[in-house]
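Re: the request from the purification team.
They wanted to know what the chain is likely to look like in 3D before they choose a buffer screen. I agreed to run a prediction and write the result into the notebook, where they can find it.
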Amino acid sequence: MIFRAMSKRSVRALAVAGTLSIYTPIAAQDNTEASVPENAATAGTDARIDYVARNFGISEQRAAEQLALTDQFQPQISALAEQFRDAYLMTIYNYGQPFSIDVIFSRDVTANELQQAVPSNLRQHVKVGRSRFTQEQIMSGKDELLAAMKAEFSSVGASFDFKRDRFKIMLPEGTDMAVARGLVPSQLRTMVDLRNEDPGTTGAGYNTNADDPTHSGKGSIWGGWPVRIGTRQAVCSSSFIVQNTETNFQSLLTAGHCGASRLSIMWSDLTLRELTEPLYMRHGGDYDFQTRWPGSLTTDGYLWIDRDVAGSFKYDCDVAGNNCKTKTWRNIYGGVSTTGYVAVTDAVKGTWRSAYGWNDNHAENDVVCKYGMVTGTTCGRIVDSFYSYEDEGVSYDNFVRVLIDPSWPTAGSKGDSGGAVFRITSTSGSFPTATAIGVVSGGTFASSGTLSGYVPCSSSIRGDCHIIYMPIDRINDDYSLGINAAYSETAIDVN
């Protein structure tokens, strides 16, 4: 079997599809003063417990116990991964009855070595497995499959199934699978599953009805606000406030594909505040983010969450955009009991492997939530920890794909791009606290047949719905950036 050598992510992304830009403001920034929003969200229920209980068929008490075990065991699993750092591949949480945690390694380490290394207190629940592939072989094999498929298909996704030890290729419904099989390189044909499954698309899109956070005064800005273009149309969401760890310079984080044109935010009295050109921007390859300077606004590490978001959309229209069906939906997030701000106090840290696009710090079946301006908060589980896809001629490599819980009436939509992927970690104190996980890049959105182009994904209409996000630690690959933390003058180091 022939595989190409794995290259470092930042070098590969620049050489293949990425764009790298740094904008230097002509005036010094004066927004370093911390600001605290007045309208804090109030505590709700743990979204992870609710998700695991309903989707894995166990009681909420059992779900809480199993989630507590994953949190308890994680430091020891990380130590085990570090002990065999060149062979470690992935962690998979298997909720339900029985509960277990799979820790997968390559065959560079023997089964006996692994069994002896597992701490005794973990052996009841932790199972070690071995793949026939190394890290380099999985990465290069996935790249080879994508290159072969892109020669024929404009929309394609690729990942690796660690449970079945096989590659998987996602192609849209209606794809001639016989043609697709013929494109698979001969040395990989017995190791690949081809699936009729929407590979995904990036999610910038206009929304004239986006609700802006209500707050007192017009001198502050926080994460989660809609990002607008022109006077009224919102084009993307924002996620977190980031901070240059060397200069303390602060800016608003959104998706790179939202464009390099002038963007703005709007206060509830319809007053616009223009943001600068991108300060830092990477779009394509392993990246999809940019940051915008909010000028003289004060800011700090808070994230706006509207817990009750509703809307409607048309679908199944004819070619002329007429005779449509209409779906009305409402997403209510139980992680907070009132709309407001949560305090960002932590972030998922990168590992030495994540510098090569290997997202072992985003375990499969881990439960995460996203917040976007169009569909609000929806939650699901990680099904692909290093997913690559092609959209409109741009390649996105080694992102994370989340299967959204089908109980949400609408999973995600264009316009949610740039939104926060997060987890509520505590409900005590003045503000609920959250961990930053990623930035929404895309998802599965259906064509509406109307001029608007796409509609939100609803599992009741189209089956499985996914969102795709860029891991948060990538903002620090080429820039000295961290996540602005509430209650601290020091930014959260994401590495």
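For the purification team: The first helix runs from residue 9 to 16.
Please add any questions underneath this entry.
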